[in-house]
């Protein structure tokens, strides 16, 4: 049965179009920086927000009206697969992502859960044969079920550690079966609420052990996906262990895992950590660990994880600037880990939301590429650091300076002269690019 019967195939009609069922800026074929937009952006759809979630939140029940809602159990799971592949085709997206529990219901036992997956995964594989949409990443949901109330790999309970491992083992097999390009570890409840009852050392060590076992098992079955850690500072626990890229990287170094992991960076998690989205992307990029992106946005007035569709063109431009400087996302992509607002309960809102997100990143890509080509920020930044190109600055970066030579230099200075940071000029130039590129100039 068709689930999006009344929705046409969405194609690019340009910025002047009034057709809500069209892309205004996302033109998959259009070349930007030597690649098509489709190749550059590598858009992915998050199964959980789009096909599984009902838009419930802590203050209210679900509001989503979906024409698969009358079904339940495995029938519902199968309908969602059909709906998903129809939806992917309408938008022409190259990727999707899921957790185990998004695609198949949990059974009463682990064996039953695996059996449910063994029915749905071949069905997805079959649909993938006739679809261009591929698996960007999958993951295990080791946070929703009550068994994970004290965490998963960082639980105080070894039985839960084992259960979590079994679920990841299964998802590594599923990822291999479906040709997943990456595999994500988001530390759902890998963190703690209070030190009053927590042994942080054993929890962190166990987390390190868990990741090594996952690396070993993927190797054993020949699953060569890129492993990604997805940092988040809080929610659901008060202190999540993968706080941000910097702390995640320190963890990987301590546990000798740097060769096996990169990062999946989510915009809303960056802002929850007190960073900007571009800060996290930049930090990962300069350390060579920018793997993939969960493209969404938080709300500046709300202190929680609102997972909105990305529409802030400043943010998408600065994000794409980092991605361009990274030489693209490699095997990663832009997964819309985003949900329509609770008031946007109609099924067609799912399409409008994805169009909004795809158009916003298309704008970001075009503006950022133009700025990059014109070396707008590059020239300003290299000029700003030019004191390290010669003299004492060069000695510092070449490792030739020490506290003696630095003291001599400081004593010889009559005055220290500065250049302006020109921030307002830079921001108005960026506005100029945003408006110019989108006026087609
Ligand atoms: C939740 C996370 C989650 C991960 C995948 O905040 O964003 O959805 O992306 O488990
Ligand atoms: Ca995410
Ligand atoms: Ca989130």
From TrEMBL:
GO MF term (any one): xylose isomerase activity
Residue numbers annotated as active site: 99, 102
SUPFAM superfamilies (UniProt xref): Xylose isomerase-like
Cofactor(s) required, per the database record: Mg(2+)
Domain of life: Bacteria
Binding site for Mg(2+) 2: 266, 269, 305, 307
UniProt binding sites for Mg(2+) 1: 230, 266, 294, 337
Residues passing through the membrane, by range: none
Cofactor note: Binds 2 magnesium ions per subunit.
EC number from the UniProt entry: 5.3.1.5
Family that this chain belongs to: Belongs to the xylose isomerase family.
Assembly, per entry: Homotetramer.
NCBIfam families assigned: PRK05474.1 (NF003998), xylose_isom_A (TIGR02630)
HAMAP family the record matches: Xylose_isom_A
Protein name in the entry: Xylose isomerase
